[in-house]
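User: Fold this; tokens only.

Assistant: Input:
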Amino acid sequence: DGVHFHDGRRLTARDVRYTFERLLRRGGLGRTLLAPVRGARAVAGGEQTDLEGLTVLSDREFAIELERPVGLLPHILSHPATAILPEGGGAGGGDARERFLGTGPFRVLHFDPGERLELEANPAYWRRGHPRSGGLVFYFNVPPEEILAEFRAGRFSLASDLLPADAEALRYDSTLGGGYREAPRPTTVVMQFNTLSGPLADVDVRRALLRSADVARLVRASLPRHAVLAGTLVPPGLIGSEAGRIGTHPRPPRRERRDDPTPGPLFLTAVVLPHPSGHYLGTAQAVFDGLRRHGVEVTIENQSPLGFFEHLEKGSTDLVVGPWTALYPDADCFLHGLFDSRVGAVRRYCSSPELDDWIGRARSEPSPKARRAIYRDFEHEARRQALFLPLFHERVYRFAQPDVAGLRLALFPPSIGYDELCVGS
């Protein structure tokens, strides 16, 4: 009650229906998240305009009917992609104030895509006493060296994505080090194998590849400061994150012996998601260098993020190295988000009817304890089949100026409660 959009309109159940139908027509991630709702495919395919499975009962109440059970639906609906727009909004016309409408603590004042976003406090925000600041300004695509210089000069209130050596030095700065905060991030950087085509479609080759080098040592030696060596796909903080610690697989990969066959000579291709700090490339290169000593040559095929995603969509390399981040607190973000044969991010590299069955069983299970057991079994089977190699879990960090108060880091986006920030108190 009392929740209004930035233009003054009151939030109602009709806005939820409008948002869901719009997401389905637009395609992309929103269509994937809402796929279990009855009639979603018909709206997405243009066969119907009204979402049959969503019934508006009153201004503040609606009902959702599903085609099949999805026990974690509340988690899925908390995904940022399902954020509610006002009915008729989001059409792309008008200035920034008219295009970007929500119910949050800040509203858009000015937006230069890829450069600068200026927000002002929402005077009609439903949470009394918030936001605690009059506005925020975000700068995008700033090189790490410039971030450091602007932060040291006091022109940036918060800073992150610094070069590793600069971040480490700043932590010990007598003036600015006290504003350092860090927290886990639900991200795993993974080396994904192409199990569908090429030399790594052979499970014995994948197993030999993992046995051929001391991967844990190589990864540990190249880890960025804000990372933790990964033993499992699912990062800490999610339902299913205990999977790698609930017992061990009865047939773990053997330690390398002199009579173990090495996978080489083997020539592989890879794509690595670029990062300004070089985190992902540095760790991937350390593993590739270790494999070279065993006759495995790896060629990186991309230079840009665009090239990374083009290869990902085609499944055109043998390896993919990149981060995968959960946006709701369940390992479904990784199983369904990565391996679902219809919508998974790495479906061109690793998918199968068996994996789809695993995903379906987990999604339909309402009990977190039962889902955790399914995720545990998945991790064990993935390890046996050598489907991928988890490299490290990331942590998020920020530096704040001494006069900034209220900085706390959270597990899920937005990683900062910006409505709590203020200067000078």
